[in-house]
């Protein structure tokens, strides 16, 4: 057995288990792990057990490593802080969490990756901006094809790949956002309905307008100063 095949077998156990609960194609997880970690041999993987090149601070802290970013389609070398993990299992779980939950400014960022076949998932994760490499999806698909990673997308005991997606209930607030949601509702920034729905431009306008008025009142201190601040702010807002 080659070292790459051994790597696939080790990662496939975690990827297949995740797929049953999350509907993220196992072929995508394995291909990403292989590409991002240079089949488990990268300095980042050896130093921080980071298989996917996720930046920031992880359970075991962070480690700074040189990396290639693409600006206007051209590769440049930069230093960046990457998450460190205690083991590969933590790295894979964090990667799964990222795809499921997205990022703070867009919780649906990777939604199109879920419940599709491996090739589609590869294209969708690039389209969503997971990596800056313009050939990222092509590289993932090449790995999938060469090692037939699609075989791991088959439900054990069946013959069809996982296609179902889990739709969240937009009327139920996520646990991680419950406290903030209650505070925003209490202070009148939101009406308390549809916490899991995408925000409209109308709702954004209401929230920002409420915040604008509250900050003005906080700074002014009294109604006399408030009128003057409102006038000055309107002047600034109308400037081009």
Protein architecture, described:
This protein has a two-stranded antiparallel sheet with strand order 1-2. It is built from nine helices and two strands; from the N terminus they run H-H-H-E-E-H-H-H-H-H-H. It has helices at residues 3-22, 26-37, 43-48, 88-101, 118-127, 136-146, 178-186, 201-220, 223-238, and strands spanning 62-71, 74-83. Residues 156-160 and 162-166 have low confidence and may be disordered. The protein is mainly alpha-helical and 240 residues long. The chain has two domains: 3-153, Lysozyme (Orthogonal Bundle); 175-238, no CATH class.
Which radius of gyration do the C-alpha atoms yield? 23 Å
CATH class of the largest domain: Mainly Alpha
Which sequence of strands runs across the widest sheet? 1-2
Note the beta-strand portion. 5-15%
Give the biggest beta sheet.
Answer: 2 strands, antiparallel
* Helical segment count: 9
Helix content: 40-55%
Q: Count all strands and give the number.
A: 2
C-alpha geometry: elongated
The pLDDT mean sits at: 84
Q: Give the topology string: H per helix, E per strand.
A: HHHEEHHHHHH
Straight-line N-to-C gap: 66 Å
Q: What ranges have pLDDT less than 50 throughout 5 or more consecutive residues? A: 156-160, 162-166
What is the total domain count? 2
CATH topology of the largest domain: Lysozyme
